UniProtKB/TrEMBL annotation:
GO annotations of cellular component type: cytosol
UniProt-listed SUPFAM superfamilies: Molybdenum cofactor biosynthesis proteins
Name the UniProt record assigns to this protein: Molybdopterin molybdenumtransferase
Alphabetized Gene3D superfamilies for the sequence: MoaB/Mog-like domain
Cofactors named for this entry: Mg(2+)
All residue ranges annotated as the MoaB/Mog domain in the record: 173-305
This protein's record includes keyword Metal-binding: yes
Task performed by this protein: Catalyzes the insertion of molybdate into adenylated molybdopterin with the concomitant release of AMP.
Enzyme class (EC, first level): transferase
Entry's EC annotation: 2.10.1.1
Pathway: Cofactor biosynthesis; molybdopterin biosynthesis
Example GO molecular function: molybdopterin molybdotransferase activity
Enzymatic reactions: adenylyl-molybdopterin + molybdate = Mo-molybdopterin + AMP + H(+)
Amino acid sequence: MKKIKTVDAIGHILCHDITKIIPGEFKGVAFKKGHIVKKEDIEVLLSLGKDHLYVWEKNEDMVHENDGAIFLKDLTAGENLDFSDIKEGKIDFISNKYGLLKIDVDTLLELNMIDDIMLSTLHNNFIVNKGTKVAGTRVIPLLIDKNKLTEAKNIVGNKKIVNVVEFKPKKVGIVTTGNEVFYKRIVDKFGPVIKEKVEKFGCEVIGQAICKDDTIMIKNAIEDFINQGAELICCTGGMSVDPDDVTPTAIKESGASIITYGSPILPGAMFLLAYKGDIPIMGIPGCAMYNKTTVFDVILPRVLVDEKLTKKDIAMYGHGGLCMNCDICTYPACNFAKV
């Protein structure tokens, strides 16, 4: 810290707040600690009786908090993001699309192990709207050592920690199975639920096939929808382990590769995910009919950003995959199924 003449202070950083007092009208901070003095500030500072100022001594090895925050923003921010104005070394990241938030969690942890900087985000795989604040970065001290920023760059490299991936609506075929529905003994309640949920993401349902508990009939329905241009197949019914629940067998016999039959998500343990080429096929358990939020709500958004999920991706939901069945559901703004 050093004392200099105010008229010589342009470009220097204030070490302390400077108060402005107008008797009977105002008393508060006119210039905050950390403010970089500009040419137009000089006259104002002199009018406040400040012929001298205490400023930080310039050091080429130190970076001002605002410049450091801009560096971190540029280093870590990926696609479909807007940003707040910088304030006291802090910048907010704001989604400019309706999409899925993708966070490089491992690199985020490494970055936050560096002293004097931070990056805070919403959970990975969080559904966000345009205007949602998804992250914020800040430099902790007023001045930061350049070496800390170099360390951050070495960790992050060309990776971007925070991205919003816009949803890619798909053509959806619904295959509903069950003798009770096929023979019209009961009214199907699955189709409307699936239709409502996929249309929320802009998807188009190109049809619903009602099949009896017959492997060949179900397999043919899946293949027919694919031939019609379906980009996602949702199979409902027949997903339990009863002898007449043949939907998983039919999906396998369609030539699809089974990624998982079963998930550590409740509700949704009997979920099936398969791919026929790049086309996802989901076997959706009965809970989706009567639970507001299930495994289907968790996996669908990831499918709609063209993420090809693995067994490990599904297994990771075991930690946090238990829904609390709250009286008022706030998903995705809750702890359910965050990885």
